[in-house]
Amino acid sequence: MKKVALVFVLAVFVPSLVLAWLAVRSLRDQQLVLERQRSLLYQAVADSVAKEAANLLAEHQREFARQVEALFADHKPIDIAGSFDGRLRKDWPLADVGFTVSLDGQVYSPNLFDRPEARRFRLDNDKFLCSRESVEVYWNSPKGTINLSQLDEKDGVQSANASANSSTYVKTSKDNKLLRNVEPQQVQQRMEQQVYSKVAPSEAEFRQLIGDSTEGTLARFLQNKLNLMFWYRSPRDPQIVFGALIALPKLVEDLGRLVKVDSESLHNEICVALLDDTGRVAARTTPAFQTNWKRPFVATEVGEALPHWEIAVYLIDPARLSQSAQTLKFTLGLLIAVLVLAIGVGGGLIVMDLKRQLILARQKTDFVSNVSHELKTPLTSIRMFSELLAEGRVLDKEKQRSYLNIITAETARLTRLINNVLDFSRIERGEKKYTFAKCDLVGVVRETVETYRPHLEANGFKLECDLADSPLLVNGDRDALAQIVVNLLSNAEKYSTDRKEVRVEARQLSQPLPHVEVSVLDRGLGVPQGCEEKIFEQFYRAHDSLSSGIQGSGLGLTLARQIARAHGGDVVCEPREGGGSCFRLRLPSAPTLATNGHE
């Protein structure tokens, strides 16, 4: 048993405790895990809005190209080059200024003296548009990246430092990397360093940026203000470039309609905001929400078309995430505790059942030894006395009668033993059948006692009976009920001491329900304290037959209780006042049972 328990502890319990310990350690990281899961979810929201914003800008770029081609329906490109500013603003409200420039460095539109906006645009951009200076710009073209290190010497394109008139807005670190205007909390936690932007300006001339492309976008900062320009070259005259300075307020209005939370479950959790290049809010989903806009939970850059503009996601209630993590931690901790408890309880039950099985196996082994001893003793007596009688060695009539009585008693003893074993086997297999009929229990007890009386009195027992005068009717199998009485009498005989007294009583009781009670009382060894129920277990014996010399197989009381319960009753054991034991058979009175049935 100790070896089995040790194997169980080493193979099951210890690994379970190790896994539980590892699980408990992982609970400390649940908040990080939950934040990581949430960051991935919210990052997807930011990426989705940023992608829609980029798509909207691309659509506006295509719309600009369509507006330009529409103007060419009745005119040549060169014919409308000078009046392009007015024509474009009239048909396309998103344009703040329309400009036209040739690749040889001539600006056709807008007119320098047309309006203040046009004049300011010309002063800020003429040198750049005429490719007479290089400036820092953010650009995007369907043709892909332009290799600015390879200059076309034949065309006279030369690199130059940005002039004093160009913007110096770009923020850089000591490694000349661009820093983002916001510091997403999740990125900071993972990287533990400065967060750099994915977009960076290129210093180049206008003609160099255009290259062989037919359309694109340019963004540059002048006096810390973003200037976003669309440009387009028509196949009708590739030498003329038509462009538009975009009205940012109107563009922001269009972008604001994209800033939304599609998932209903996230409306009360997050606020999505569009941040401009200075980190100020241009649009948001929750108007009343206020926070440190520089510290979003996650953020995504819109791209080169709107450099340093961000789609940011903020937690409306930051404490809610911690509460969710604590709830998850508590739930998982409780689950781990329950599982460890279940493993412990299950392991304990397994050990208990294993112990019970080992005890049962030992009892079965003892049972085989007991039955062998029980069979050997009467068979030896029967063989010895039958041989004496058969060989004619005993001539005295009294001795012959005594020997015959011994043979008869030992034969009955063998019969009871074998019947007990066979009945127990049938009950275990569910094959035991009972024939229920109304019968007088007093009559069954009287007949059984009178049959057993000669045997008890021959062994020096004083047998007393106190039976009811009137019949006590029960529904039951007469032979099975008689077997209960025989087993109880046999038990009283085996565990007797020097006071060989047996008393049998039978009476009708009304409490708690009407029932009949048969009591067999003895003055024997009694039942050890705590074994009142164990003595009814199969093969269990409070006093081992081989060591104590007490005969028996350990099945008599087991069969008595099983038969009684099959009849709707029970057999119980109580200590008898003055020493000994009292076994009581209780059966329901006949009116409470059906007239027939089977187990």
- Average of the residue pLDDT scores: 80
Oligomerization state of this entry?
Answer: single chain
Strand content: 15-25%
**Main beta-sheet strand count, sense and barrel state:** 7 strands, antiparallel
Strand order of the largest sheet: 2-1-7-6-5-3-4
- Please give the share of residues in helix: 40-55%
Gyration radius over CA: 53 Å
Shape: rod-shaped
- How many helices in DSSP terms? 14
The end-to-end span amounts to: 37 Å
Helix/strand-derived category reads alpha+beta
Integer tally of domains: 2
Contiguous runs where pLDDT drops below 50 for at least 5 residues: 144-176, 592-599
Count of DSSP strands: 18
List the helices and strands and how they pair.
Elements: H1 2-27, H2 30-71, H3 77-80, H4 84-91, E1 95-102, E2 107-109, H5 116-129, E3 135-140, H6 185-191, E4 202-204, H7 206-210, E5 215-222, E6 225-233, E7 240-246, H8 248-256, E8 270-275, E9 281-284, E10 298-303, E11 306-315, H9 318-390, H10 397-429, E12 437-440, H11 441-458, E13 462-467, E14 473-476, H12 478-494, E15 501-509, E16 515-522, H13 545-548, H14 556-566, E17 570-575, E18 581-588
Parallel strand pairs: 13-15
Antiparallel strand pairs: 1-2, 1-7, 3-4, 3-5, 5-6, 6-7, 8-9, 8-11, 10-11, 12-14, 15-16, 16-18, 17-18
Helix pairs in contact: 1-9, 2-9, 9-10, 10-14, 11-12, 12-14
